[in-house]
Inverse folding.
């Protein structure tokens, strides 16, 4: 199937990026600075093609799309056309050298994402630019047409959102081959125990610092991430006047700060669905910095409850709908 005619005119900047010229200039300056620093902030070529699942979609696709266009390849192991298109897209991702990132999503393992994007057949290729999803084409297309589509996507990313891509360190692959096996981080039992004691004693600042100390060495530490989210939440609500907060939120549905505070109180009070629903609705009716603040707070509250909780899964689905 030939690529659908792409119309970029409807792409909306969900992060309310400032004037395109200013954003582009800043992005180009950052890219040049990273290159001058000998790869500081650069990524390995292996980071240009990534496997993405539902749990990592927010960070690997939505957040990454704020700095580089993300092209999504929906595929499956049993799909023969996918086996033709996939290697081509991977080769182009490396050839374009950081102008876009390719995210591969196995539809069999990620049915929710398939439904959210309305996938009717595979292979199907979408893009996410500055948080906005748009279809590119479905089926296997000639390489020349795929290149044309990618060039147009990159042009829109640069001109409208200042996305000049990411810096790729071509030496990183060799360095990785020579590097010794990574020693597992930790253990952090003492720090985690200190943080837990501080949390029990309502020393939220101490707990936050202890959890951050763990995460500075081990960013993926699940216990520290959960503890930090809890400590920050409790620190925010400890001095709140609950009655006044709820009054402000009821009287000011457009007051983002009031809605954030009320959502925190909802969660602490055990009203998890209310907290999530309030923030999803706030994301829906706001834009720019206000929308981003509500979205980030919602992600923080997801950490408090845990990614596998059905209420979090449902709220993630609702968030994706309002973002797209």
């Amino acid at each position: 199937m030939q690529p659908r005619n792409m119309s970029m005119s409807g792409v909306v900047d969900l992060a309310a990026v400032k004037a395109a010229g200013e954003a582009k200039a800043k992005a180009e300056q950052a890219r040049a600075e990273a290159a001058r620093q000998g790869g500081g902030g650069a990524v390995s070529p292996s980071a240009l093609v990534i496997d993405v699942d539902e749990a990592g979609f927010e960070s690997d696709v939505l957040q990454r799309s704020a700095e580089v266009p993300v092209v999504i390849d929906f595929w499956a192991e049993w799909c023969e056309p996918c086996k033709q298109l996939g290697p081509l897209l991977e080769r182009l991702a490396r050839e374009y050298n950081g102008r876009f990132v390719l995210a591969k999503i196995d539809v069999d393992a990620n049915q929710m994402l398939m439904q959210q994007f309305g996938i009717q057949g595979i292979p199907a290729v979408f893009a996410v630019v500055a948080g906005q999803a748009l279809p590119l084409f479905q089926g296997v297309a000639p390489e020349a047409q795929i290149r044309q589509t990618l060039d147009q996507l990159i042009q829109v990313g640069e001109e409208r959102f200042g996305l000049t891509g990411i810096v790729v360190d071509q030496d990183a692959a060799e360095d990785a081959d020579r590097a010794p096996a990574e020693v597992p981080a930790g253990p952090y039992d003492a720090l985690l125990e200190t943080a837990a004691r501080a949390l029990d004693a309502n020393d939220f600042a101490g707990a936050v610092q202890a959890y951050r100390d763990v995460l500075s060495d081990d960013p993926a530490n699940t216990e520290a991430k959960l503890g930090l989210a809890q400590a920050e939440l409790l620190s925010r609500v400890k001095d709140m006047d609950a009655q006044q907060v709820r009054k402000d939120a009821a009287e000011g549905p457009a007051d983002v700060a009031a809605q954030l505070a009320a959502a925190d109180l909802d969660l602490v009070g055990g009203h998890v669905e209310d907290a999530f629903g309030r923030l999803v609705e706030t994301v829906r009716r706001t834009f720019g910095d206000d929308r981003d603040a509500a979205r980030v707070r919602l992600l923080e509250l997801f950490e408090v409850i845990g990614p596998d909780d059905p209420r979090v899964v449902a709220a993630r689905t609702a968030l994706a709908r309002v973002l797209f």
Observations:
- Residues 143-161 form the longest helix (19 residues).
- The beta strands are 49-51, 70-75, 101-106, 124-129, 132-138.
- Residues 1-24 have pLDDT under 50 and may be disordered.
- The two ends are 25 Å apart (CA to CA).
